[in-house]
Write a structure and sequence with these properties.
The complex is a heterodimer of chains A (76) and B (199). With 76 residues, chain A is mainly α. Chain A has four helices and one strand. Chain B is mostly helical. The chains are: A mainly alpha (76), B mainly alpha (199). At the A-B interface, helix 1, helix 3, strand 1 and helix 4 of A face helix 2, helix 3, strand 1, helix 6 and helix 7 of B. Strand 1 of chain A pairs antiparallel with strand 1 of chain B.
Chain lengths: 76, 199
């Protein structure tokens, strides 16, 4: 079965939001559709670049949470 | 079995039984999503840090008192607590709880480095700084979706509902954000190489 994938579906694939059967179909298309594969690669590379930085609480906050839990456990 | 490979549900059970390492793993897995969920609403890093603490403390008491409901995902549960606390904060402050990241500079000033090896740290810092700047330069709507999907780990459907647009609009904004970033990163690298080798 041949299916033309939209750009939005490609993005959903990159972020693991496609249903498994649609995902399998798209992966099959990536083998013979060079343009689709290139577009997918561009999105994956952009996504990978975002992974270089992350947003999260500081170490002090995390330690305060863990200490709170440890102290509470000692009291119980 | 290695504790790192355990599911959230198994870690919760271990924690309730007294295993503090299990709780450390739960915090490690979900702290960034909790923090980003709060930061998107309160738009202030100090407040977000405080509310992250409140969120996990509330979770601790719920789990330790045996009131944790195992139905549903731990991730969704902890983020719901975080979201409710952020909204409560707004009610107390009598401010609008609308998600608006016009003040994106504060958010991006707080981006931190992923844990990696220390080699080539200077080059990495420069790359990260450039990436932060490029994200800052994105149109607000694209930047908002990018943060929600990539850093807050919200699904495109959740983003659509939160921002009041269709899922196709959310997907389109994210796609343009990624394409714009990729182009800018590529152009930036080419310029850097030319400076190095042209003379």
């Amino acid at each position: 079965m041949t299916k033309i994938f939209t750009q939005n579906e490609l993005l959903q694939y990159v972020y693991n939001e496609l249903e498994s059967n649609t995902q399998a179909l798209l992966e099959a298309n990536l083998i013979f559709d060079q343009q689709l594969a290139e577009e997918c690669a561009e999105l994956l590379l952009a996504k990978a670049s975002l992974n270089q930085i992350e947003m999260g609480p500081g170490e002090k906050t995390v330690n305060a949470i863990l200490n709170y839990s440890r102290n509470l456990s000692l009291q119980l | 079995m290695n504790i790192i490979q355990l599911s959230d549900s198994a870690l919760v059970s271990l924690y309730i039984a007294g295993n503090e390492q299990a709780f450390e793993l739960l915090v490690s897995r979900h702290k960034n999503k909790v923090y980003t969920t709060i930061l998107l609403i309160v738009k202030n890093t100090d407040t977000a840090e405080d509310l992250v603490q409140d969120t996990f403390i509330k979770a601790i008491h719920t789990m330790k008192s045996g009131r944790y409901n195992e139905e549903g995902k731990f991730s969704s549960w902890i983020c719901r607590i975080a979201h409710n606390l952020a909204i409560d904060y707004f009610r107390k402050e009598k401010r609008s709880p609308m998600i608006n990241i016009e003040d994106g500079s504060n958010i991006f000033n707080h981006l931190t480095f992923s844990e990696e090896s220390i080699e080539s740290l200077q080059i990495k810092e420069e790359t990260h700084e450039r990436l932060r700047e490029l994200i800052q330069q994105l149109p607000e709507a694209q930047k908002e979706v990018l943060i929600m999907r990539h850093y807050a780990d919200m699904s495109f459907q959740e983003i659509a509902e939160t921002t009041g647009v269709s899922i196709n609009t959310a997907l389109g904004r994210m796609r343009y954000a990624l394409i714009n970033l990729r182009k800018k990163l590529t152009n930036s690298n080419i310029a850097y190489d030319q400076n190095l080798y042209s003379k």
